[in-house]
Design goal:
The longest helix has 20 residues, at about 35-55. The radius of gyration is 18 Å and the shape is globular. The chain is an alpha+beta fold. Helix 6 (about 150-155) runs antiparallel to helix 7. A hairpin with a 2-residue loop joins strand 3 and strand 4. About 45% of the residues lie in helices and about 10% in strands.
């Protein structure tokens, strides 16, 4: 699996990642670069960025903190990465998702490709029809905000053996969050972005 980083940095994979990020639109990160500007920027700087990643010199930007209202009236904190970082993150996801998908339960539906809430509801109805009487819905409060980063990296290491990929993922975890112009460290938790956050 030592070639994993090269699969992530493959030009076809990066272009597919760019197309996905462009489709999702979204707002700018802390650098102000828009989704419409990133294509030309990558055309000019893609090879330099790839080399920085290979040499472990790439430094992701802090995410821009925004808050959106939840249905219960409380606020949900989101971290908006720069568009460049979103493209790189998407490139990572495209390579790692198929690897980890093989390990997940066939009965989990959240945040997984080709799965939806509707599929979970259908499965619940099938369980009722099979004679089960209970369905438990659990929402762990502030779960992503409290993820232990070292434990998460340890779990990822069990499957991913390319240390450069592990290093890149950790850099994203600790890249920090920009709040009112001040960068605050992120020693715990995983940033929650909203790839469908339109302009």
């Amino acid at each position: 699996m030592e070639e994993l980083l090269e699969r992530i940095l493959d030009n076809k994979n990066l272009y597919k990642a760019y197309e996905q990020v462009y489709r999702n639109k979204g707002t700018s990160g802390i650098d102000g670069m828009t989704i419409d500007e990133v294509g030309y920027y990558l055309y000019l700087h893609k090879e330099k960025i790839k080399q920085q990643i290979r040499e472990l010199k790439y430094k992701p930007s802090p995410v821009r903190r925004v808050e959106i209202p939840k249905e219960n009236g409380k606020m949900r904190k989101l971290g908006i990465p720069t568009v460049i970082d979103r493209v790189i993150q998407q490139a990572i996801v495209q390579v790692l998702s198929p690897i980890f998908e093989q390990q997940f339960s066939n009965y989990s539906y959240g945040f997984r490709p080709k799965r939806s809430c509707e599929m979970a509801v259908i499965r619940a109805l099938e369980c009722f029809n099979d004679g089960y009487d209970w369905i438990i819905d659990i929402d762990l409060q502030a779960f992503f905000d409290n993820v232990n980063q070292d434990k998460l990296i340890g779990i990822i290491r069990r499957t991913i053996k390319d240390g450069r990929v592990i290093s890149l993922i950790r850099k994203y975890l600790v890249s920090g969050v920009m709040i009112n112009g001040v960068c605050q460290p992120t020693k715990v938790g995983t940033p929650q972005g909203d790839s469908y956050n339109k302009k």
